[in-house]
Amino acid sequence: MSSVTTPPLSRRAGEGKDPAGSAPGGASPEEEAALQAAFDAAVAAEERIEPRDWMPDAYRATLVRQIAQHAHSEIIGMQPEANWITRAPSLRRKAILMAKVQDEAGHGLYLYGAAETLGTGREQLLDKLHTGRQKYSSIFNYPTLTWADVGAIGWLVDGAAITNQVPLCRCSYGPYARAMVRVCKEESFHQRQGYELLLALSRGTEAQHAMAQDAVDRWWWPSLMMFGPPDEESAHSARSMEWKIKRHSNDELRQRFVDICVPQAEALDLTLPDPDLRWNEQREHWDFGTIDWQEFRDVLAGNGPCNEQRLHQRRAAHEDGAWVREAAAAHAAKQAARATPPDPAPGAADTKTPPLPAEQAPQSRPPEHAPQPRADESAQRGVEHSS
Amino acid sequence: MSATTPPATLAALPLGDDALILSHRLGEWAGHAPVLEEEVALANIALDLLGQARALYAELADVLGSEDEIAYLREERAFLNCQLVEQPNGDFAHTVVRQLFFSTYQQPLYAQLTPSLPLAAKAVREVAYHRDHAEQWTLRLGDGTEESHARTQRAVDALWRYTGELFRPVEGVDARWEELEEEWDTGIRAVLGQAGLTVPDSPRHGAWSAGAGRQGVHTEPFGRMLAEMQHLHRSHPGATW
Q1: ipTM reported for the complex, 2 dp
Q2: Is residue A315 domain-resident?
Q3: What sign does the dihedral B183-B188-B193-B199 (CA atoms) show?
Q4: Binary contact (A331, B27; C-beta < 8 A)
Q5: pTM of this prediction?
Q6: Where is the segment annotated Disordered (chain A) (predicted)?
Q7: For all residues of chain A together, what is the average pLDDT?
């Protein structure tokens, strides 16, 4: 139906208007009320809100906060896994892990792009991350101590992320919803790869099995915390659900995740570290023990094992790379200058490189060469190897 | 070279080692790149090279065993990669120049070997992209700011001594070495010239051991790199992953 893809004109902010502005300049209170009503109706009718559409300021701010936090989580999340790239114990695993970490950089790119459609640029958001004004998922403040942690992150952390993110593919904001479709496809690869890594360890030597169990022991509870505080304490949930940014409550999603993981842990021959885990006939769900919310708050407040380390590395990479970004911008400016004057400087005019998007380095390969199939190819090759 | 051993089999080891070791070095960048786009780009190059190494090692399976035995269970002196690829990443300029020097060598080499080396046709397309990426960045950095120019010139000067080795004939690799060197020289001079960088006049064939990687003599950082790469695999003898 055309109304799904083409929002009614009444919601449009108007051609040529700054997409960051929430209302057309000088809208009267009556006009504003009409726009609000049209927005509410569109959300209620499951239509997508697009960048040029009118939207309430608080809706925009909520989305920017959420998308930015998600983007930051992708790029900070590269660190604990990259920690094992140079030590990956087989070439097949090394290829899978490198491709996975690369996917996370790619997710960061899509998500910063989605935030940009709301009028907030990547540089601005990175600055907020680097100065601690925006957060990333607390799960990445835990260390990856053994190779099995790479598997536990894939199985549990990516698994929890997928449980959280699949409903976001139906988020009311179009660019975010579309980015999430792609992110979720890649994340489910990662989750399967993590599960398969743990399975190999579990079925391996005694030492390998112990390594896998230890990783699950350490990652299980922090993974449950990834769904956020219990519903009654969740600051942003109610309004986000009303706006259809969010579709299910934290506790609902957490329960869904536990229900999925229990049989998988059994298949892995690994134990989930919760003595209270038992099937509840009445609820038809798994009951589980009490989450240590004090730990959650501590890590969130900056006192997790790796908060400082993660942020330090991120800032260092950014600061160490400043001269590279400056050089790219300076070269682009020189090129532009060389292209316009009637008298090109002799000798220098030969220096022709493709123009860069403002202040950014070039995307190295066209999107059709997106990295995700590599992980799959490697995995398939590996499966063939071992069969 | 014995008449019964197909040339591709012998060629596979030094070429595979080049690809593996440079891939490993590029993998060290993950989470440290100057912009997000370069996280993606450097990982792409690393993955291409790792794929090449695995395809090359596969040809040696009958002689040397599985790809993991070849990568993880050889000692430093048994690796036949050129010393250029094992050089530490340094700053971004250093990594770019190392890639420029290597890809400008690897692309025509693979092109020459296409008939005898099954992987070369696919690899030559990948390497053309690596080379283009390195050339674009050399131009940007050489031309960009005073600082980027100085850093890039330092990288060129430091890595120059490792480039002579690339053209010493390698046993089993049926290439026209002089032609390769001429082509490399022309290509590199053109890029450095466009970038406003100076071609060093220092020797490319040193009297010391620079250039002995093909004989299994490496530089000091290589041993530490291998220790890190091989540690976990070696800690669990016989385990599968």
Answers
A1: 0.95
A2: yes
A3: negative
A4: no
A5: 0.88
A6: 1-33, 327-387
A7: 86
